[in-house]
Amino acid sequence: MGLRRKANSFVFRYLFLLISHSEAEFILLNLGICNCFLAWLGFNQQIPHRVEDPKTVVAFEEFCRDRLSHAEIVDILEGRSPLEAVVEDILLKMHIQAKCRALCMDALSHIRRKAFHIQQIERIAKIPVNEDNQEAFPLFYEVWAALDDREVPESFEVTKSIGKGEVDYPSWGDLGFQTPLTDFRMTGLLGLKCLHHVSTEFKARARQVLAATSNTDTWLPCAITSVNVTAWVMEDAKKDKLSVFLYKDYSATSQIFYTLHAFYFFSFVNYWNNSDAKTILDFKKVSEGFRDYIIIELEKITDAYISMKNYEEGYMNAILLDSISKL
């Protein structure tokens, strides 16, 4: 494998010289071997002004992280310097020709947009959900109204477990809470907003999930599951596993994140139902398998998105919604 890798590296570097492109340009232009030989034979290549394939941005970001200092990467991600100044610096350091300036700027703008999305997500997640946060109360009440036709529980302290006490007495435990005002420690207000979104925007389906998972031996507490799912999406986003969804989509940060959460949530419910889980104690084992499974499923969606070559604003959010409808 080592010799093969070296041979491949030699061939590609030789091709770089033949077509007068730097390695960074090779990535930005998404060149393959056929492109290399066409260029070598003298066919002129038209330089696009924007990156169409989000996987190209992924590759370019990885290349930047390998070649630039930590301070330079932070400058790209946090927007400390104007984008134009960053682009000029990148062109110089990575030997990118001026004719690729617009393409480089487009790629860097996507990378910066993704970083902005993640910063916004983290900011909302740091807002605590407790008795002092008045913004949280209406969200709780709307979640209840979306999932249960009874009167809202008289207080957040009413959290009896499923199947105990008076069956018809409304309790936050009926929705899968332990203690609503402390259940969002991991995810803050972001977790509550994700639960609110999946409950109100997918009301009928969320009710079906609640009914199907509340009265079985493999009881799955919906609210707590949603909190865990929010944490998974946050973690995957910060580990750059969801980059293609955050690069190219111009939807509001919250919208694309809420849609990703809904896709994860309903996918996990299906995964749980098809697993060999016997009790809620199997949650950790099942969720570990799901974390790998969901990334593979998202890659399939990404490949479909790229093959359709439809890059209109909000399309990534739309294709996720379509995928949810097919679960």
UniProtKB/TrEMBL annotation:
Protein's UniProt keywords contain DNA-binding: no
Top-level taxonomic group: Eukaryota
Record-linked Pfam families: ELMO_CED12 (PF04727)
Annotated signal peptide: 1-24
Residue ranges crossing the lipid bilayer per the database entry: none
InterPro entries in the cross-refs: ELMO_dom, ELMO_domain-containing
Record flagged with keyword Lipid biosynthesis: no
Keywords in alphabetical order: Signal
Record domain ELMO: where: 135-298
Protein name in the entry: ELMO domain-containing protein
The species this protein was found in: Babesia gibsoni
Phylogenetic placement of the source organism: Eukaryota, Sar, Alveolata, Apicomplexa, Aconoidasida
